[in-house]
Write a structure and sequence with these properties.
- With about 180 residues, the chain is mainly beta.
- The chain has one helix and twelve strands.
- The strands form two sheets. A six-stranded antiparallel β-barrel has the order 1-2-5-4-3-12. A six-stranded antiparallel barrel has the order 6-7-8-11-10-9.
- Strand 4 and strand 5 form a beta hairpin.
Amino acid sequence: DTTYHQKYTYTSANVVNNSTNRRNNYLTLDKGSKQGITNKMGVITSSGIVGQVKDVSENFCTVMSLLHSNFIVNSKLKKDGTFGPLSWDGESFEYATFSDIPTHVKLVKGDTVVTSQYTKIFPENILIGTVESYYREATKPFYTVKVKLSTDFKKLTHVYIVYNLLKEEQETLENRSEPDIKHN
């Protein structure tokens, strides 16, 4: 007796420009406002996440790549749900850094890292990559994890732009609550 509520829509797009060798990398896609694209939409491939729409014209959009110094995505270990931020360290287009993983978590090379339920631009459980290695700084109670990305940014040709149909409603509600949260 439950009613199905669609949360996401997907628009197919082609990559018409892409960079991977800068500190702040972008892609250009062949879809824009005429096709319903707006900024802050997620971008994925069949192999994992790509980035977030930044700017939009009538027929094109630019995407802030996961390979950008300001891109952070809420991620989690698929096996147990332990979550934390994932970002690019600027070194290799093949790896990212997954942070703030408590030291009681039993990490294993090859563990799967996916998007968490806390991201508003991507559906939950979209593949990001796998644990390559991890370490702990002596003064911190957390692991820093090196993640081998599932998306090959050197071979991107076709992507999907993701629109969260409930994002605006969630943000409106959270913004109303925010003043109370800040004072507690």
